[in-house]
């Protein structure tokens, strides 16, 4: 069933578990994610990024059909919506959530642009995620790691002024593969969790390590974005079988992606949490 991301994450925060948000960019990965949710009686958030699939309207409607046919709660979220029109396209396509990324703007501009889209989205029951601080790139982790950590007091002000439904925080993760050793600032996470009353989101889950991720979902993170680990698992599945034909190869990629996703679902304790 198709639900808002807010509905999924409010429950996760209240009950102390995390929800995977796999990056899906084609039919196979979307089907794999929905199948994993159904088989494990778990809620699921499908993250669709414009950078990976520019036809978010057509693909979003496909994912909407998958979600409506499922007997578990599924939300569809626009990941890192960088432009105003992308958010509008997503809302019109049936997405139940949009992530408005204005984290590189000056603080007051960030607030103004996010608040405007919150007003539009909430008018049609679409939830909104936004980022405060900045999650950098793993390839320059030693440089980016401390550059944009989220300030707890500013986070409180930001949530109140924008009206967002969940907040993506920077506590030491990075996008993509790491060149340094991931170090999450759990005392900072605790401060943010106790300061704001909306669910918290962790970007850059891949490569962060099972121990770090499991601890983060036990101690305040409600949504974990995943991409690189899932796609690498799919590629490894094909390579391990030494497959030379596209048809079987695509099935292997889907199976590897799905198996890694289920691993994280179990790690975050979201299995069996469907309603």
**Secondary-structure element pattern, one letter each:** HEHEHEHEHEHHEHEHEHH
The separation of the N and C termini measures 10 Å
How would you write the strand order of the largest sheet?
Answer: 1-8-7-6-5-4-3-2
Radius of gyration over all CA atoms, rounded: 17 Å
CATH topology: TIM Barrel
- Portion in strands: 5-15%
> Which CATH class applies here?
Alpha Beta
When the domains are counted, the total is: 1
Ranges where pLDDT stays below 50 over 5 or more residues in a row are none
Labels describing this entry:
8 strands; 49% helix; 11 helices; 8-stranded parallel β-sheet; TIM Barrel; alpha/beta; 275 residues
Structure description:
- The protein has eleven helices and eight strands.
- The relative contact order is 0.16.
- The model has no long low-confidence stretch (mean pLDDT 90).
- The termini are close together.
- It has 275 residues and is α/β, with parallel strands linked by helices.
- Strand 7, helix 9 (210-218) and strand 8 form a beta-alpha-beta unit.
- It has a single domain (5-267), classed as TIM Barrel, CATH 3.20.20.
- Helix 3 packs parallel to helix 4.
- It is globular and about 55 Å long.
Spell out the blueprint of helices and strands:
Elements: H1 5-15, E1 19-22, H2 27-39, E2 44-49, H3 56-69, E3 74-81, H4 84-93, E4 97-100, H5 107-123, E5 127-132, H6 141-144, H7 152-162, E6 166-169, H8 186-195, E7 200-202, H9 210-218, E8 221-226, H10 228-240, H11 246-267
Parallel strand pairs: 1-8, 2-3, 3-4, 4-5, 5-6, 6-7, 7-8
Helix pairs in contact: 2-3, 2-11, 3-4, 7-8, 10-11
């Amino acid at each position: 069933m198709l639900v808002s991301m807010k509905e999924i994450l409010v429950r996760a925060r209240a009950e102390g578990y995390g929800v995977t948000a796999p990056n899906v960019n084609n039919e196979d990965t979307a089907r794999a994610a929905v199948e994993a949710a159904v088989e494990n009686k778990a809620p699921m958030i499908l993250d669709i990024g414009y950078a990976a699939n520019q036809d978010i309207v057509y693909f979003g409607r496909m994912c909407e059909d998958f979600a409506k046919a499922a007997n578990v709660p599924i939300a569809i979220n626009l990941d890192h919506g960088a432009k105003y029109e992308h958010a509008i396209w997503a809302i019109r396509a049936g997405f139940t959530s949009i992530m408005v990324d204005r984290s590189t703007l000056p603080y007051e501009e960030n607030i103004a642009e996010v608040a405007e889209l919150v007003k539009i989205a909430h008018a049609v029951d679409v939830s909104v995620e936004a980022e405060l601080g900045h999650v950098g790139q793993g390839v320059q982790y030693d440089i980016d790691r401390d550059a944009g950590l989220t300030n707890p007091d500013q986070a409180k002000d930001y949530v109140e002024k924008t009206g967002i439904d969940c907040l993506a925080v920077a506590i030491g993760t990075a996008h993509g593969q790491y060149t340094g050793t991931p170090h999450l600032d759990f005392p900072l996470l605790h401060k943010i969790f106790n300061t704001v009353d909306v669910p918290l989101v962790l970007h850059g889950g891949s490569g962060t390590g099972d121990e770090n991720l499991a601890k983060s979902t036990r101690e305040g993170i409600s949504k974990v974005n995943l991409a690189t680990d899932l796609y690498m698992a799919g590629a490894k599945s094909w390579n391990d079988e030494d497959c030379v034909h596209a048809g079987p190869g695509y099935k292997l990629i889907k199976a590897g992606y799905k198996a890694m996703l289920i691993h994280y679902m179990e790690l975050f304790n979201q299995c069996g949490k469907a309603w």
